[in-house]
Amino acid sequence: MNGANRLGSNSLTECLVFGAAAGKAAAEYALKLNSPSFGNPVQGEAMMEEKRIFDQLLKHEQGERISSIRTEMQEGMDKHVGIYRDENSLKEGCRIIGDLKTRLKNGIVEDKDHVYNTELVAALELDFMLDVAETMPYSAILRHESRGAHYRTDYTKRDDTNFLKHSVAYKTAGPPRIDYLPVTITRWKPEERVY
Q1: Domain 44-182, what architecture?
Q2: Which residues lie closer than 8 Å to 70 by C-beta, 6 or more apart?
């Protein structure tokens, strides 16, 4: 909706619109997988995720507080993956997020209730946020250009020849795999942003 999502744009609307579309598509995909021809892999994965949540987050009696990991994520992203970026800063952002993901495995949720547990919800949100946060420096480090809100102090010009493409991140057992999709130009051709 807003290209590179300039600061101050309507990103809440984007989250709601695209979040709803993504959720609907995921539900349709899950229902298709749950058909007799595919067996029931969705239910199996849901049960494994539930076991992970209870074994990893609720059974720990000692560990690091979720709130401290979240604060470090916010500070690390702000400092190393913020408005002005360069290769060294982005590499440090990758390292920090990877470290925080490892530390979250030993995170503790002090409230052990299984119903209306806002601390557990915060831990799950942090787990998801770290996955999303990790995609940002990994994809940004590969773009040797500046475009929209992505400003590299070491590559200050836009490079349509090599980077007029969508970055796509895939979850793996390690760092995200970054790939690309072509951009379809219809009515308006891309132009350099000038102020």
Answers
A1: Up-down Bundle (1.20)
A2: 122, 126, 129
Residue 153 DSSP class: T
Residue 107 phi, psi (nearest 5)? -70, 155
Question: How many other CB atoms are found less than 10 A from the CB of residue 193?
Answer: 12
pLDDT, one tens digit per residue, over 6-16 is 555 556 666 66
- Do residues 170 and 177 make contact, with C-beta atoms less than 8 angstroms apart? yes
Per DSSP, the three-state class of 128 is: helix
The one-letter code for the residue type at 146 is S
Record the pTM: 0.76
98-122 as b/e, with b when 16 or more CB fall inside 10 Å?
A: bebbeebeebbbeeeeeeebebbee
- Does the CA dihedral 83-89-94-98 come out positive or negative? negative
3-state DSSP call for residue 172? coil
